[in-house]
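Researcher: Next entry in the queue.
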Amino acid sequence: MLDVHPAHHAATTWRDFFIHIATIVLGLCIAVGLEQSVEFFHHRDQVALLTEQMRTEAQSNLPLIRDSVARLKVQVTYIRSLEDALLAGKPSGDSVDVHGVPPNAGSALYVSPSRATWSAAQSAGLAALLPADRAKLFARLDYNTVEDISADEDLHETLRTLVSECARAHYDHANPVVQRISLSHRDDLLFQLEQVDGALRRSTATLALVEGGDEAILAGVHSLDEMYSFQKAAVRRIQVEAGPAAFFGATPKP
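Model: Structure for this entry, 254 residues:
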């Protein structure tokens, strides 16, 4: 806080008056300069701390993402096994004899990547202190993380619908014994399995984008184009093999 004190005695000449004014102006300039210097170094420290926190969060997210991708791929395999079992059923009139498939070992649930650091920085107004290019990088990564959270929610919704559809069709999908269900129920199940397969692919794709973004942050990139190259590499590396289409129109390897 700036504090200007009055002179101890009144100026008696113009020279004393201008010296007095000059002293006040100089004191104010010094005070403002010191205040701005303190603020500058404080902001610089805040930016450095935020950048390091983003790096730490990215480092923590990577093993979670890789574990989640592995779980999703297991679920893709299981969904396709159910599709194969339903398609292999023998029709008999309006019904079809099909068998279930025991589920793969392991949980289908996974933990979404964290975005707490950037959210907190925005709430505290710290994001505005970042250089524009770095702010764009962090904002893009946060956008991809939000997309992954949305994809995760959609996946769980399609899985809940699939479970309901199995109950409606009286189809015990985890039981390997032969079961008789109606053809219309079989077709409804195939449709819902296709929806789940698409949701699994979307979750895997969004996780790939977050993984690539986190890798870019750790590599210290300075532009969105550099981040995109990391994300494209992650998508190519993670893409689910086989199926009707690969991510972003890429042709699966034979």
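Model: Confidence is low (pLDDT under 50) at residues 240-254.
Researcher: Noted, moving on.
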